[in-house]
Amino acid sequence: MKQRPVEDGREGSIKGLGGNTVHMMLGNGAKLCIQAVYFVLMARNLGVYQYGAFVAVVAAAAIAVPYVGIGFGSLMVKHVARDRSLFSECFGNLLVVTLVSGVVLSGPVVLLSLVMLPKSIAPSVIVMLVAADLLIFPHVTVAGVAFWSLERLNWTAALNVTASAMRLGGLIVIVILHRPTVMAWAIAYLLSSVLSSGIALGCALCVLGKPHAALRRVSGELWEGFQFSVGLSAQTIYNDIDKTMLARLSTLTAAGVYGAAYRLIDVAFVPVGSLLSAALPTFFRQGTHGIGASLHYGWRLLKQVLPYPVVAFLGLLLGARLIPMILGQQYEQAVGALRWLAILPLIKTGHYFIANSLTGAGYQGLRTVVQVGVAVFNIGINLWVIPSYGWRGAAWSSIASDSLLALGLLLLAQVLAKRASSPCDSVGHTAPEST
Question: What is the number of alpha carbons within 13 Å of residue 363 lying toward its C-beta?
Fold first, then answer.
């Protein structure tokens, strides 16, 4: 018996999805404009070497960021999408877990960064950037998730725009003071994180009300939350570890070139990411009816959005030549890097919709297993190609890793859907809460 999606008429339905996607698109569009300005200012003022140092530290911290909150943000979206009466408890638990995990993780990340990264990067820079990304800025994400779980993505988008504006303001101050160094930017990065986190939490508490932590629920959800964290961490590894490895195994200049090109890939993927953010609560609701329902919903959305990454691929190929004109001649090699990486938005679009279908149906654990396998593959191949080929090797490993992920998730989804549609499995089937 074939499973079909059930439209529930809530805000996460097609009408609500369209509105939320527009909110995220507008918010991300404004955020992109702000980020484009500070990206250009940073790249031009710091230079490729110092920008490479900044990228290397932030990429190292990014590997630990998914463990801040231990996946309780994803759990909050899941629980509140299905039962809004759980909002206050989930919000309180998320705040507590985010603070505690951030404190626990910061020390080891600083120590590992001091060991792994080049000695030319000042320890104080590492401490400030890690503190900003693991201790402070995650509270902007917490506030955004609180609004996201209620499908009020206009607020989530606004908070993200505000945070980007704060960081741009800090960089502008540095440029005005003629202090274009990675140390000055690290200080501004830390202070702007403090300010934006305070504003975000203040908005969430004023608009949504006071949270009430129910810590008795935390221990019972740690394993499921950990699965989300491991999945996000693996995703960060195959997206970002190459930048840190370039700084260690090649040069900071190579890390700067590759980091600049990959930044444009992230920009190109934003419209698809906006739709995925808006659709996630509905993936969770559809998932209560089984893997067939969530895959059907994901496939419907994928068909609508697929023309965009094709156009983005062509635009990145043709527009790569403009990089030196915008960032300066020192980024000439980023032209080749962007052309190699241009296919990634198309590949990512495919595997993200499959992945969210699996998550919505309760198969986050299996999704995580595939992601971890790809992360291990990415690290292994980078150890081989980066010392010999520099940023080109990093680009090749990124394409191979995302392609492998798309293939692995597709095969997994087909197996699960086939099993769920068999007569003996479809009767009385409900999606598991965790795997």
Answer: 29
Average pLDDT by consecutive 10-residue portion of the chain (435 residues)?
A: 40 55 71 76 76 80 87 91 90 94 93 84 90 94 92 88 88 80 87 94 93 85 89 80 79 80 86 85 89 91 91 92 83 87 93 92 92 92 89 90 94 90 48 38
**DSSP result, 168-189:** HHHHHHHHHTT--SHHHHHHHH
In this structure, which amino acid lies at residue 226? F
One-letter amino acid for residue 20 of the chain? N
105-114 burial, b at 16+ Cβ within 10 Å, e below that, comes to bbeebbeebe
Element holding 90 (H helix, E strand): helix 87-116
Rounded CA-CA distance 210/203 in Å is 11
Cα–Cα distance measured from residue 165 to residue 66, given in angstroms and rounded to the nearest whole number: 23
Estimate the share of the chain in helix, then strand, then coil, as percent rounded to the nearest 5.
85, 0, 15
Contacts of 237 (CB under 8 A, 6+ apart): 63, 375, 378, 379
C-beta neighbour count of 24 within 10 angstroms: 25
Structural contact between residues 130 and 152, judged by C-beta atoms closer than 8 angstroms: no
Distance in angstroms (rounded) separating the CA atoms of residues 162 and 168 = 10
CA–CA dist 233, 402 (Å, integer): 15
Task: Say if residue 40 is exposed, middle or buried (CB neighbours under 10 Å; 0-12, 13-18, 19+).
Answer: middle
The answer for residues whose C-beta is within 8 angstroms of residue 251's C-beta and 6 or more apart is: 52, 390
Q: Write out the two tokens for 388.
A: 């010999």
Largest distance between two CA atoms of the chain: 71
In sequence order, what are the residues at sequence separation of 6 or more whose Cβ sits closer than 8 angstroms to the Cβ of residue 21?
Answer: 274, 275, 278, 279
Q: Tell me how far apart the alpha carbons of residues 243 and 434 are, in angstroms, rounded to a whole number.
A: 33
Q: Is the pTM of this model over 0.85?
A: no
What the block records as the tokens of 385 is 């190609």
